[in-house]
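Quick one: structure for this chain?
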Amino acid sequence: MLGFLQGFSYGLFMTCLPWLLVGLANPRLALAFESPSRWQVWVRYGLVVPFISMLLWLTSLWGGFGPSLVGWLAGIVAIPVALPVERTLRGWLARRREGRRQALAAAESRRQRAQQEREAHEAGLAVLDPAKPPQGADDLVLAMCRAKQGLLDVNRPDLAIQADRLYSRYRHVLDVLGSRFHSGELAFERSRGLVAEVCLGAVDTLHTMESQARGVVSVDGNFVRRRLSREGKRLSEEERAALVRRLDLLVETEQRLDAHSARIESALTVLDDTAVAMAQIETARPQASVTAEKALEDLRRFVEGADRYARKD
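Got it. Here's what it folds into:
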């Protein structure tokens, strides 16, 4: 056993220089890291591996046995065998971390969605369930459901709530129109058509927001920031530029999403203005033959002269 270790240390030490030269030429060939650098090659094949081989050699000296051929051959092939094993292990660990990260992100997304739905309920918003559209929903409401589901699919429940707000305004405006006009009147159909056009424009904006959010759904901004903060000095210029560009993409996308959110707000304001304006329209025929002020004045005069009708004995 000691002879094997002694031969292994000789073979391992002999391979340090060739692997060091290969790693300096192309670090990916000599290291199993995701983004290896040349200083890591120096550390491994100039310090760590020679130290391990020297330690094994010193450990095997006290036995007095000579190096074995099998140990020498095992030391020569140790690094070529260890590299694929290390790559496989690191890949498995990376996939495990990514799966855990996605699970945490999905759980956080569900938590945010539940929180926003609770806030929507407390604020009096009508919450759309894309899986179960409201009974008797028209094509416009179904389009709102599809837009909300698309935003939920890209893990943006903060944007999906815009569909709930739009649906609440749409339903409120229709209720106001129904209370002021009959469904067969031309004014009702005209007003409803204009309201539907505004809502369809807002739904198109929601779909645009979904498309832009989908473009950066795989970019983890928190991971990029952590890596820049922890490994900023060790990263190459090319890698640092790539990470910074990812953050720029996130910022640019958020700015575009904010601009689209402003358009949604404008549509909601128009719907609110419509509801207020329609609520001020008096279309019903008055049931009283006189105005309320005239009736109050007549009643007051009657009360003042009511003592004239008292029976006199």
